[in-house]
Amino acid sequence: MSIDEPTSQPRKLLLVAACALVDADGRVLIAQRPEGKQLAGMWEFPGGKVEAGETPEETVVRELAEELGIETKTACLAPLTFASHSYEGFNLLMPLFVCRRFWGTPQPLEHQALKWVRPNKLRDYDMPPADAPLIPFLIDLL
Ligand SMILES: Nc1nc2c([nH]c(=O)n2[C@@H]2O[C@H](COP(=O)(O)OP(=O)(O)OP(=O)(O)O)[C@@H](O)[C@H]2O)c(=O)[nH]1
Predict the structure, then answer these.
(1) What is the CATH number of the domain that holds 120?
(2) Is 134 a member of any domain?
(3) Is there an atom of ligand 1 within 6 Å of 48 CB?
(4) Complex-level ipTM
(5) Is residue 19 within 6 Å of ligand 1 at its C-beta?
(6) pTM here?
């Protein structure tokens, strides 16, 4: 067997679209993952898996409605950067969009709690390992 040959099952690629909602003060919304789920208690950017037939932008619009009860449009989403991280069992590819224009007040419909945080304070929160490289991009932007 050559040294490059995989010795275990190839991990699948999981495409998740996430969004940094930004308020008028330049703070970003993070949401605490519910008990009982993978990475429970960690703070994440709202978003979720891209379903068959969806664009990542459509996923974000749908997830923001489902998770936070707010409305936005795909035209209100600007791509910022992406996360690429190997978790046990799958590789995560996660585009991160920024959204400053939305309608309604975010509510924790599927999370334990929500928090508006200044980007330079995001490192104070326990976030999934995939998210750490995203923080400098938000600090630079905001
Ligand atoms: N939404 C979101 N997911 C993230 C972030 N960082 C990160 O590693 N992930 C991972 O991306 C995947 C997103 O899955 P999800 O939120 O749609 O699904 P889930 O694990 O809640 O499960 P389910 O919706 O199937 O019940 C999870 O494995 C989650 O750990 C993030 O900042 N936001």
Answers:
(1) 3.90.79.10
(2) yes
(3) yes
(4) 0.94
(5) no
(6) 0.94
